[in-house]
Design a protein that fits this description.
The protein is built from eight helices and 21 strands. It is α+β, with helices and mostly antiparallel strands. The longest helix is centred in the last third of the chain and has 19 residues.
Length: about 325
């Protein structure tokens, strides 16, 4: 177990003070040992995967950060039209997308190039281009810190919603350590036109007719590479603001005002990146944080040295969008606290 580790070295936004303790979890048996160490010392626990979608605070973290490094991918069930793939929490999500699409499995191909690990995916119910991880979750294997046992949570028990689950919302936040996620994927292509706006635009411009899982993955990867910075090279936490959800009445009013509203998973949604861009903020820099000139939903850490800088930039951007559109922007990345 390491002590006094800068959180800025563990997260892709590269901000944050020191963590008192950091422990790598390489095998399932390590989990209980780490939790008992934290309990015996009266310390809180924070679970961290690849460090994307996570932001450190200036004051650091006075507990134990557990780095998820559990690895392995296997097919555990096969039917004529589907398979269940079990992926351990420390696997890179995009690696699993690549493996499954190469085998012709469909269900997560649109999640290509999303930074982060498999274990982080159900926490925030990650999604992109019309797919979200909850669409294909069969079950989630977890360590229950209350009972000190491994248990299985069904999809229903995970209580998935837009960017939410039992793991980040509600009274049981912090109770579970995700060990592995089982995904039920279809054999063959299941995504067909019309696609999400930017993907459909690519299909139209390139006259694509092959909608196999592997080809959709390649298209999504190309689109994301053109718009989104690689967090390994450029400091960013990925998508920074949650999309705005509207009631049917609010959506009707918004459309009358020229706001782009679309239906996703039965809800009216406004893309926060569109709002930021339409507010004239694309490419602008505030307190060392730059709104990406390629994708306005991304904040890039150009020269910010502290969470305080980020906080000021976030407030400035949100205020400008509020004054122009009357919509409240909410931060998507979680904070280590």
């Amino acid at each position: 177990m390491k002590q006094n580790v800068p959180i800025s070295t563990l997260t892709t936004m590269r901000l944050g003070g020191e963590a008192r303790f950091v422990q790598e979890i390489n095998k399932v048996e390590d989990i209980d040992t780490a939790y008992q160490f934290a309990k015996s010392n009266g310390l809180p626990v924070f679970i961290l995967g690849g460090g994307a979608n996570t932001i450190g605070l200036d004051e650091g973290y006075g507990g134990v950060i557990l780095l998820v490094r559990l690895r392995g991918v296997e097919v555990i069930e096969e039917r004529p039209e589907s398979v269940v793939v079990k992926a351990y929490a420390g696997e890179v999500l995009d690696d699993v997308v690549k493996i499954t699409t190469l085998r012709g499995y469909s269900g997560i191909e649109a999640l290509s190039m999303i930074p982060g690990t498999v274990g982080a995916a159900p926490v925030q119910n990650v999604g992109a281009y019309g797919q979200q991880i909850s669409d294909v979750v069969a079950e989630v294997e977890v360590y229950d810190s209350q009972t000190r046992k491994i248990r299985i949570l069904s999809k229903k028990q995970c209580k998935f919603a837009y960017r939410e689950s039992i793991f980040n919302t509600g009274s049981e936040v912090g109770r579970y350590f995700i060990v592995a996620v089982s995904l039920r994927l279809a054999k063959g292509a299941t995504l067909h036109p019309p696609f999400y706006v930017s993907l459909q635009k690519y299909v139209d411009e390139h006259q694509v007719a092959d909608f196999s899982p592997e080809n959709i993955r390649q298209m999504v990867a190309t689109i994301r590479a053109e718009k989104l910075p690689d967090p390994k090279i450029i400091a960013s936490s990925g998508s920074f603001f949650k999309n705005v959800e509207l009631s049917d009445e609010e959506a009707a009013v918004a459309r009358e005002k020229g706001v782009q509203v679309w239906r996703e998973n039965g809800k009216n949604v406004v893309n926060s990146g569109w709002l930021v861009e339409q507010a004239g903020l694309k490419g602008k820099e505030f307190y060392g944080m730059k709104v990406s000139d390629k994708a306005a939903l991304i904040l890039i850490n150009e020269s910010a040295k502290s969470y305080a800088d980020l906080s000021l930039a976030r407030a400035k951007i949100a205020d400008i969008v509020w004054k122009k559109f009357g919509f409240v922007l909410e931060q998507e990345p979680v904070e280590i606290r």
